[in-house]
């Protein structure tokens, strides 16, 4: 039995939801309302000391951090591979996914916005902050894709992997901030391909 605790506005949650759908894994979903502070309640803290989302419970085992969860799902469930089998491609996939999840996503989270707000920044200032870092992440992704010696339909081949999952989630965040994705030709092409797949529909 797999249960996913998440928030529908969380790009980290959406990464895991896409992976679950790509691998056709049945799961129970529990919505945790960040706006209402449900992630800070004692009951949720008992599950996750970090008080972050997403959280995946498989039977009685608990996992946190979206990329670790995705890799676990790939290890224990057959079917669609969300990580390439070739070691170099696998490493590149992890690296590209981390560009979003480690380098840029932490800069635009709710807790960062709350801290900026507490420091006196206006909502307009915070919106500009988010837009700046999201836009830079997309520019870095486009440059990284352009340096690939081999061009694929998706980031690592003919089907979507963890790299595409993270790219799509970041593009969705950028789109919601009013960023024009079409300026990034390679990135936008992959985003458009993902957009056509049913596994990505639920998070749009």
UniProtKB/TrEMBL annotation:
Q: Which SUPFAM superfamilies match?
A: GST C-terminal domain-like, Thioredoxin-like
Q: Which Gene3D superfamilies match?
A: 1.20.1050.10, Glutaredoxin
Output the Gene Ontology terms for molecular function.
isomerase activity
Under the heading Pfam families, the entry gives:
GST_N_3
Q: Which UniProt keywords apply?
A: Isomerase
Q: Among its keywords, does the record have Isomerase? A: yes
Classification via InterPro entries? Glutathione-S-Trfase_C-like, Glutathione-S-Trfase_C_sf, Glutathione_S-Trfase, Glutathione_S-Trfase_N, GST_Zeta, Thioredoxin-like_sf
Q: Where is the GST N-terminal domain?
A: 1-81
Is Phosphoprotein tagged as a keyword?
Answer: no
- The UniProt record lists the GST C-terminal domain at 86-204
- Family, per entry: Belongs to the GST superfamily. Zeta family.
NCBIfam families the UniProt entry points to: maiA (TIGR01262)
User: What PANTHER family does the record point to?
Assistant: MALEYLACETOACETATE ISOMERASE (PTHR42673)
- The name on file for this protein is Maleylacetoacetate isomerase
Task: Name the species this protein comes from.
Answer: Hafnia psychrotolerans
Q: What is the lineage of its organism?
A: Bacteria, Pseudomonadati, Pseudomonadota, Gammaproteobacteria, Enterobacterales
């Amino acid at each position: 039995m797999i249960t996913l605790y998440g928030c529908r506005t969380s790009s980290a949650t959406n990464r895991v939801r896409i992976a679950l759908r790509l691998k056709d894994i049945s799961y129970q979903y529990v919505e945790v309302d960040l706006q209402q502070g449900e992630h800070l309640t004692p009951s949720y803290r008992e599950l996750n000391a970090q008080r972050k989302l997403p959280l995946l419970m498989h039977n009685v085992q608990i996992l946190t951090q979206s990329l670790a969860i995705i890799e676990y799902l790939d290890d224990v469930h057959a079917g669609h591979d969300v990580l390439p089998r070739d070691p170099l491609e696998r490493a590149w996939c992890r690296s590209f996914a981390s560009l979003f999840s480690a380098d840029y996503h932490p800069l635009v989270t709710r807790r960062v916005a709350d801290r900026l707000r507490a420091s006196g920044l206006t909502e307009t200032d915070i919106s500009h902050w988010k837009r700046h870092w999201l836009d830079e992440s997309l520019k870095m992704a486009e440059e990284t894709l352009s340096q690939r010696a081999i061009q694929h339909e998706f980031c690592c081949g003919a089907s979507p992997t963890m790299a595409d999952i993270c790219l799509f989630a970041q593009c969705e965040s950028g789109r919601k901030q009013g960023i024009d994705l079409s300026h990034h030709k390679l990135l936008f092409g992959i985003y458009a391909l993902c957009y056509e797949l049913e596994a990505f529909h639920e998070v749009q």
